[in-house]
Amino acid sequence: MKKLSLGIIFLIFLLSGCSQAIPEEVDEYRLKQLIAATFHDKSLEANFKNITINEVANFLLEKEQKERFLYVLGGQYATKDELVSDPAFMRQLSLAWGEGDLKYHVQLPGDKQQLTTTFSATTMTAYNISYLVNIPAKIAANYQTNKLLLEYKGEEVLEDVVIKGSFYYFLGLDIFYAITGGILAFFMLFFGFFIGLLYSPIQSFLDVFPIFLDFVKTFYYSIKNF
Predict the structure, then answer these.
(1) Taking the mean position of all CA atoms in its chain, how far away is CA 54?
(2) Closest listed residue to residue 72, CA positions, set 122, 149, 130, 116
(3) Amino acid 40: pLDDT
(4) To 10 degrees, the CA torsion angle through 149, 32, 68, 114?
(5) Which residues on adjacent β-strands are paired with residue 107?
(6) Contacts from 86-93 at CB under 8 Å and sequence distance 24+?
(7) What region does 22 belong to: left with phi over 0, alpha with psi -120 to 50, or beta?
(8) What is the pLDDT of residue 226?
(9) Neighbours of 153 (CB within 10 A)
(10) Is 198 left (phi over 0), alpha (psi -120 to 50) or beta?
(11) What residue ranges of the chain have pLDDT lower than 50?
(12) Half-sphere exposure (CA, 13 Å, Cβ side) for 1?
């Protein structure tokens, strides 16, 4: 099979995987964020110039990458009713967003319901702490994904200018999202906990033990993925 640049492969994968209608508006930058949520493999990154599409597929199917990617992508459709009826998915989504997604979610993408009135106090706290400790890793992942743009050489000079412009545009947005997300996550550590406790007092207690081990893992991922 002909070798393809990883940037093109990821673009094809994204467009094919996100082609159906998603309630949240998904533009090119949001697509880039979604794939960066799983782009944490240093060995893959080091050899992206000579990688085949099968190798990318195998990487995405690895247990850790696959789970995070499926939860993050599934979160694009998540509604309040679905999450309330499936606390296990809610817990895993909170950590998947915190570990991989640079965007800080105030509303659910699926139905625009407020996160604070959906997540329990426990999952809300896990989300905010996970988001904060994983900011460096998420910035690194998004930066590496941005660099893939520079590997694509256009046939015209104007194409190269647009590609380089997109790199710096995405980089600026990454910094903006990291700063605003970090501020929101910090304040929501307190407000999110109390609102979640008010709306879901019983579920907040029930979530403590099931989420504990995965919550510990999020600190490990913040170091491993950076």
Answers:
(1) 23
(2) 130
(3) 53
(4) 160
(5) 114
(6) 87/120, 87/203, 87/206, 87/207, 87/210, 88/210, 90/118, 90/119, 90/120, 90/123, 91/122, 91/123, 91/126, 91/207, 91/210, 91/211, 91/214, 92/67, 92/214
(7) beta
(8) 65
(9) 9
(10) alpha
(11) 1-23, 41-53, 56-57, 61, 63
(12) 9
Handedness of CA 59, 61, 67, 70 (dihedral sign): positive
Going from the C-alpha of 92 to that of each of 116, 186, 212, 216, the distances in angstroms are 16, 20, 11, 13
What type of residue sits at position 164? K
**Structure tokens of 124?**
């809300």
Compute the distance between CA of residue 170 and CA of residue 179 in angstroms, rounded to an integer: 14
DSSP-derived letter for residue 23 is: S
Closest to 3 (Cα-Cα) out of 47, 62, 61: 47
Per-residue confidence (pLDDT) for residue 131, from 0 to 100:
95
Please enumerate in sequence order all residues whose Cβ is within 8 A of that of 226, keeping only pairs 6 or more positions apart, or say none.
136, 137, 140
